[in-house]
Amino acid sequence: MNARIKLLTLSFLAGFSTLAVSCGGGGSKPLTEFDFCTQKAAAECQVASTCVVTMDACRTQREKLCMDFVSATEVAPRVFVPGNVSACISKANSVYKQPVIKPSDMDALTDVCNYVFQGAVADLAACTTKYDCKNSKDICDKGHCAAQMSVGANLQCANFGAVCGSAQFCKTVGAAMMCTDKGKQGAVCDAADPCLDAGFTCKAGTCVAQAGQGESCTSNADCSSTVPYCNPYASNKCSPGLTFSAGATSCNDYGGTGSTTGAAGAGGGAAGGDGAAGSSGAAGAGGSDAAAGSSAGAAGSDAATADGSDGATD
């Protein structure tokens, strides 16, 4: 009888040990925000050898920038979600392997890393950014979490989640909210009345052609699709993307001789709205305006619309 009890006890303990390994990594401590930043810094510092800087110097700088992002982003209703860390690190590894990092690459990285800090706001409840929403497929549209619904040209867009086509935006017209054409060359524009995304940008209240290679810009949105990066390391000139080389100014934010702005890869700023994971901010610090296209919202501020609808897909 005692032998049978001993056998059962040993079987139970073996099963418990297996469960502990599968759930907790063999008794290792839970993943923390600093662990997240350590892993993210390691992924970003693939460029250390290209920049000819030490790995320690790069990691120290990138960890600090990431922790700045954590402090700004881990604000209610958003909380640290360890289960979302691996997707961010995987994306960072793939982005930083590229010889030229385009704004769209950084936007995608900023977006997935913002979900490391996600809220639990239910559908149709109030939000500030899509990262507040419990459902990661929701957008924050007109101040509420909702599933995205595409709306046809010139149709009503008043419902939460209703998003107009890329050539239009949602605007109050009379007593209704309608999909309305974005401005073309020479049209009057501002934050509430945007220009067509492809080929135009708003300058001094007028829609003008986007800038070309080497021309001045203030954000990625000012640059044409062939040179989509407003390079803060080249006096804000349009270029193909973020690059690194020995002695390059871009290396200053990766363990180089002098930090500038924490460009490219911080993960986005705090409490941004929806949008393409950060609209065209130049050079952010640890999550504030990351270079190659993230914005102060972190992922992403919403592209401005009159009603607050999701700018990523308007």
Give a quick precis of the structure.
The protein is built from six helices and twelve strands.
Task: Summarize the structure in words.
By secondary structure, this protein is α+β, with helices and mostly antiparallel strands. The protein has six helices and twelve strands. It has helices spanning 2-24, 33-44, 48-51, 55-73, 85-95, 103-114, and strands at 79-80, 117-118, 138-141, 144-147, 149-150, 162-163, 168-173, 176-181, 200-203, 206-209, 229-231, 237-239. It has a two-stranded antiparallel sheet with strand order 1-2. It has a two-stranded antiparallel sheet with strand order 3-4. The protein has a two-stranded parallel ribbon with strand order 5-6. The protein starts with a helix and ends in a 75-residue tail after the last strand.
Comma- or semicolon-separated keywords:
6 helices; two-stranded antiparallel sheet; alpha+beta; 314 residues; disordered C terminus; two-stranded antiparallel ribbon; single chain
State the helix count. 6
Structural class by helix and strand composition = alpha+beta
Cα end-to-end separation: 73 Å
H/E series: HHHHEHHEEEEEEEEEEE
Using the alpha-carbon principal axes, give the shape: flat
Average per-residue pLDDT, rounded, comes to 81
Low-confidence spans: pLDDT under 50, at least 5 residues? Answer: 1-26, 261-314
Whole-number radius of gyration? 23 Å
Q: Strands across the major sheet, in which order?
A: 1-2
Number of strands: 12
Main beta sheet strand tally, sense and closure = 2 strands, antiparallel
Strand content: 5-15%
Helical coverage, percent range: 25-40%
